[in-house]
Amino acid sequence: EYIQHRMLREQQIMQALEVLSPAVTIAEMVPQIYVDVDPKLHSIAAWSVEAHLIKLEREGLVEKLENNRWTLVRPTA
Q1: Cα separations (Å) of 8 from 14, 22, 40, 52?
Q2: 4, 14, 24, 42: least buried by Cβ within 10 Å?
Q3: Strand 62-64 to 24-25 pairing
Q4: What is the mean pLDDT of residues 2-10?
Q5: pLDDT confidence of residue 70
């Protein structure tokens, strides 16, 4: 179940990158991904998003830009 949850979260991050602007911050992604989580916990959720983004960057799927913005290497749509 844990692995499935992590994979789902990764999909949500990829979708957020696709839907939001081409260069988006983690703070801009978190409310889109964690809609069912109290906003008071969004700063903690941001750590999880950052960990996913680092993994995705290592896999060549996303890229970190200036000003702590992230983008997809190749848009999926």
Answers
A1: 10, 21, 22, 11
A2: 4
A3: unpaired
A4: 90
A5: 97
The percent of residues in the chain predicted with pLDDT above 70, rounded, is: 96
Three state DSSP letters for the chain: CHHHHHHHHHHHHHHHHHHCCCCEEHHHHHHHHCCCCCHHHHHHHHHHHHHHHHHHHHCCCEEECHHHEEEECCCCC
Q: List pLDDT tens digits, range 32-61.
A: 999 999 999 999 999 999 999 999 999 999
Q: Position of tokens 């949850």?
A: 5
The confidence score (pLDDT) of residue 74 equals 78
Q: Whole-angstrom Cα distance, residue 63 to residue 35? A: 24
- Cα distance between residue 12 and residue 59, in whole Å: 17
Q: 65, 66, 57, 67: which is closest to 14 by C-alpha?
A: 57
